[in-house]
């Protein structure tokens, strides 16, 4: 297995990148972009109470875009030797000169200034090995399995990554993330319980950049507790109910309803229910959403936080919904050029092997009260708590029809029983406008940061009488 220090020294990438760019420019092309990145990942997984896998994965390579008359040639290599790189240049020059020009392509980004953002790298996390990763998943499994004798099986996972990158283009962009790079980490637990013939499941997870945020004991116990609480589910009558949303449910419903619908590519192709609604009131005045590319919380940068996006455009914080008014769409350089505006810094790049795509940096739904999920439950006389659903809205129409995977009936301020065989239906514009309260119990769910919230009503399809 390759050692994490075996890949080429990142300090040489700037020299190599400039040499590669200059080599491409010799061939009468218009623009060139070089992207070099490396990653070290650790993964450990437990499946049904047994260790399934544990591995270290080292990956590095170079992606190259060459543009001629609006035609783009893209390729990548995992060998940074000059013979390999120079051959790639010739192949991509041929592609760029022989392909069909895209009249909508205007330009790659030009140079900008970058703000140094702290809290993106954890040296402790970067130094851990597979043995430590296994210890974490074993601890999750132990806590979950020991929660109750009704626990039937436990799945647990741990991952961590350390990434570094260098981005250069012929319009003056030079974006570095080489000295320390960025780390990320996540753990999860998925627990199945059994009581007689009745079986149910629960899960929980954590994401972040620092090892110290992890609480495997808590995650294991919370997943097992939720699984126990969902035993004995019952049908409910079809009707309109007030709905309280756990952040996990909002991650499936509200996150794509906002992030995908404000994707400028979807808007330009009229595949978004928010097409043509810029500067219009699309939700209630409580709804404020920010895309924050520089979000740092408690000294730790969020997972979507960095100085620049996947094309080298500086990241900023920008208002998406302000008191329910749609203020902007998310752009990369391509869609921005098509609309004659500047990129919003939302080009996401998975690694050297992919071209950028549009996505949110850190989508934050801002709290509007001091209340928590428990407060919403205590104040509810008759309603539904939606904990999780595996379904997402139709972004073109805004319609949502989803199975309540984990949900509870609420009566007189307390949870009465879990729900089975029920679905929720609502249009997302109605959802935005029916929000009555937004809590303060923010969960960091990857690039989505959201508290619990309550809407006045939605249609629940359950048992007919």
Structural class: alpha+beta
CATH topology of the largest domain: PmbA/TldD fold
How does CATH name the architecture of the largest domain?
Answer: 2-Layer Sandwich
Distance between the termini: 63 Å
Shape, per Cα inertia axes:
globular
Number of H/I helices? 10
Roughly what fraction of the amino acids lie in strands?
35-45%
What is the tally of beta strands? 24
* Helix proportion range: 10-25%
Keyword list:
6-stranded antiparallel beta sheet, 8-stranded mixed beta sheet, globular, PmbA/TldD fold, alpha+beta, 22% helix, 24 strands
Question: What's the helix and strand layout?
Answer:
Blueprint: H1 13-25, E1 31-47, E2 50-68, E3 71-77, H2 82-98, H3 123-127, H4 130-145, E4 151-169, E5 174-195, E6 198-208, H5 216-229, E7 239-245, H6 247-259, H7 264-268, E8 289-292, E9 296-297, E10 300-301, E11 317-322, E12 325-326, H8 333-339, E13 347-348, E14 357-358, E15 363-365, H9 373-378, E16 382-388, E17 399-403, E18 406-411, E19 414-418, E20 423-427, H10 428-434, E21 435-438, E22 443-445, E23 448-450, E24 453-461
Parallel strand pairs: 7-16, 15-23
Antiparallel strand pairs: 1-2, 1-4, 2-3, 4-5, 5-6, 7-24, 8-11, 8-15, 9-10, 11-12, 13-14, 16-18, 17-20, 18-19, 20-24, 21-24, 22-23
Helix pairs in contact: 1-2, 4-5
């Amino acid at each position: 297995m390759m050692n994490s220090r075996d890949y080429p020294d990142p300090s040489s990438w700037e020299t190599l990148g400039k040499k590669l760019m200059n080599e491409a420019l010799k061939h009468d092309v218009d623009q060139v972009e070089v992207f070099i990145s490396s990653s070290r990942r650790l993964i450990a997984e437990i499946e049904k109470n047994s260790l399934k896998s544990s591995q270290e994965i080292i990956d590095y390579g170079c992606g190259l875009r060459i543009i001629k008359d609006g035609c783009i040639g893209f390729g990548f290599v995992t060998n940074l030797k000059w013979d390999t790189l120079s051959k790639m240049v010739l192949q991509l020059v041929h592609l760029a000169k022989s392909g069909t020009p895209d009249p909508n392509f205007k330009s790659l980004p030009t140079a900008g200034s970058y703000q140094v953002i702290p809290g993106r790298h954890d040296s402790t996390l970067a130094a851990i090995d597979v043995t430590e990763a296994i210890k974490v998943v074993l601890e999750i499994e132990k806590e979950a399995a020991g929660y109750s004798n009704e626990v039937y099986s436990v799945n647990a996972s741990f991952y961590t990554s350390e990434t570094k990158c260098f981005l250069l283009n012929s319009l003056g962009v030079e974006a570095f993330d080489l000295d320390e790079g960025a780390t990320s980490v996540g753990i999860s637990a998925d627990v199945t319980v059994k009581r007689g013939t009745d079986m149910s499941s629960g899960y929980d997870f954590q994401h972040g950049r620092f090892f110290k945020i992890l609480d495997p004991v808590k995650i294991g116990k919370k997943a097992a507790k939720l699984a126990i609480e969902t035993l004995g589910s019952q049908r409910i009558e079809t009707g309109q109910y007030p709905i309280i949303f756990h952040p996990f449910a909002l991650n499936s419903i509200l996150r794509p309803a906002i992030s995908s619908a404000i994707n400028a590519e979807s808007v330009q192709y009229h595949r978004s229910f928010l097409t043509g609604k810029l500067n219009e009131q699309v939700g209630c005045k409580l709804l404020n959403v920010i895309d924050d590319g520089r979000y740092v919380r408690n000294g730790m940068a969020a997972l979507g936080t960095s100085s620049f996006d996947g094309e080298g455009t500086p990241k900023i914080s920008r208002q998406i919904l302000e008191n329910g008014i749609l203020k902007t769409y998310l752009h990369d350089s391509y869609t921005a050029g098509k609309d004659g505006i500047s990129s919003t810094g939302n080009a996401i790049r998975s690694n050297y092997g992919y071209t950028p795509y549009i996505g949110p940096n850190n989508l934050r739904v801002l709290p509007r009260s001091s209340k928590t999920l428990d407060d919403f439950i205590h104040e509810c006389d008759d309603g539904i708590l939606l904990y999780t659903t595996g379904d997402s809205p139709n972004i073109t129409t805004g319609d949502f029809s989803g199975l309540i995977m984990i949900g509870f009936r609420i009566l007189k301020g307390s949870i009465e029983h879990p729900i089975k065989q029920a679905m929720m239906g609502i249009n997302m514009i109605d959802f935005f406008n029916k929000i009555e309260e937004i809590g303060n119990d923010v969960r960091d769910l990857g690039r989505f940061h959201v508290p619990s919230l309550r809407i006045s009503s939605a249609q629940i399809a359950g048992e007919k009488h």
